[in-house]
Amino acid sequence: MDKLLIRGGRTLQGEVTISGAKNAALPELCAALLTPEPVTLANVPLLKDVSTTLKVLAQLGASSVRDPADASVVTVDASSITSTEATYDLVKTMRASILVLGPLLARFGIARVSLPGGCAIGSRPVDQHIKGLRAMGAEIRVEHGYIHATASRLKGARITTDMVTVTGTENLLMAATLAEGETILENAAQEPEITDLVDLLVSMGAQIEGRGTSRLRINGVERLHAPAVPHRIIPDRIETGTFLCAVAATGGDVTLRRADASHLDAVIDKLREAGVTVEPGEDSIRVVATRRPKAVSFRTSEHPLFPTDMQAQFMAVNCIAEGVARVTETIFENRFMHVNELVRLGAHIAVDGHTAIVEGIPKLSGATVMATDLRASASLVIAGLVAEGATTVDRIYHLDRGYDAMEVKLRAIGADIERIPG
Ligand SMILES: CC(=O)N[C@H]1[C@@H](OP(=O)(O)OP(=O)(O)OC[C@H]2O[C@@H](n3ccc(=O)[nH]c3=O)[C@H](O)[C@@H]2O)O[C@H](CO)[C@@H](O)[C@@H]1O
Ligand SMILES: C=C(OP(=O)(O)O)C(=O)O
């Protein structure tokens, strides 16, 4: 298992290019299952989760090719599907595999998808995906760890999910594009990745109203086709936020290229409250941090409020900030796995239910720590960048799931960080 070795204490200076959004790429690659025509996506990040998705698609018989001149351009051809089953061995490594359920059922009337099972950050059931597809007329049985779904043709329905669910909205949205009649998704998630998926689906011929709102109205069509021009995936707002937090913690002056500040309002507001200068540009964000940040309290929520996927990274900033911050996690019941590892680096954090109370201290001290999930890994990297001495972050396969060459990008802006293959 690879590790990262970080020697902390350097400020960050220079430029970083942000990759395409993981959480848009995964549903959009699965959306290619909705049509027999080849779908080309641009700005696909080079991530483990993307290669896992391509493996899931390959298992179904969909081929994919990366443009030899630009590896971030990927074409998926789902014209000759040979299976409608996503098996446990792949789904267990990436929950987002559940995103093949809606498209397979809508186009082929049958799907067999492994239940994803537990996850380090919470129990994460998929009952709302199932409830919505049932409302659209699907017959669904859950047996032997698999969701078996069939439908002659899905029928439009009015669906109100019990809570806001991102992949749930995506699955139902994709399914509804090929259903008979009108579907209304109430309480839909409004994350920028959903809007990007809507844009892709509309470019494929889907009829969708309510883009960017919590009420999506979909008029099902008989068939979808390839977009006329390759769809360009939006920048990864969580990668962007992670670099913003890294600079806030270490100090420095960094420009993030191909970033979109409008997707990160809540995080940027909090960074400004911490005393960090954040200057959005046309297609970039400059971040300047010249002094120790001030501790900032926040609570996670659905978009456009503070994203749970930035909670761990911002907590790392609070660890070395001046003052005391309360960090409340409201989306996932167990998303504080990074706390004990941050404490190993000297942080003063006490957890009380869903709230972590972080008392900032001037310096962390390097140690060996273990990554437990994707964003926990990123928080440990940030903490390692400001810790005195050497920090080793173990089990970084979690980090590789969702960050495109993170250590290479950090090294380019002055961090002392290297990958130790293991
Ligand atoms: C691939 C992807 O896009 N992943 C993101 C997606 O995950 P994901 O789509 O899995 O997260 P959801 O939005 O579905 O989860 C929100 C909450 O709803 C609960 N729930 C969800 C569905 C369901 O059927 N039943 C149920 O109880 C979950 O356990 C959780 O407590 O949104 C999360 C919340 O912004 C992010 O942290 C993930 O990075
Ligand atoms: C929780 C995340 O991803 P996933 O839903 O794929 O586990 C994440 O991106 O932070």
UniProtKB/TrEMBL annotation:
Binding site residues for UDP-N-acetyl-alpha-D-glucosamine: 95, 124-128, 309, 331
Please report which protein family the annotation says this sequence is part of: Belongs to the EPSP synthase family. MurA subfamily.
Catalytic activity entry: phosphoenolpyruvate + UDP-N-acetyl-alpha-D-glucosamine = UDP-N-acetyl-3-O-(1-carboxyvinyl)-alpha-D-glucosamine + phosphate
Q: What is its main location?
A: cytoplasm
Q: Which gene encodes it?
A: murA
Q: Where do the catalytic residues lie?
A: 119 (proton donor)
Its lineage opens with: Bacteria, Pseudomonadati, Pseudomonadota, Betaproteobacteria, Burkholderiales
- Give the modified residues of type 2-(S-cysteinyl)pyruvic acid O-phosphothioketal: 119
Task: Enumerate the subcellular locations listed in this protein's record, separating them with semicolons.
Answer: Cytoplasm
The UniProt entry annotates ANK repeats at 180-213
Pathways per UniProt: Cell wall biogenesis; peptidoglycan biosynthesis
Residues annotated as domain Enolpyruvate transferase: 7-409
Enzyme Commission identifier(s) = 2.5.1.7
Identification of the protein by name: UDP-N-acetylglucosamine 1-carboxyvinyltransferase
What organism does this protein naturally occur in? Sphaerotilus uruguayifluvii
The record describes the protein's role as: Cell wall formation. Adds enolpyruvyl to UDP-N-acetylglucosamine.
Query: Which domain of life does the UniProt lineage start with?
Result: Bacteria
Positions with a binding annotation for phosphoenolpyruvate: 22-23
UniProt entry keywords in alphabetical sequence: ANK repeat, Cell cycle, Cell division, Cell shape, Cell wall biogenesis/degradation, Cytoplasm, Peptidoglycan synthesis, Pyruvate, Transferase
Single GO MF annotation? UDP-N-acetylglucosamine 1-carboxyvinyltransferase activity
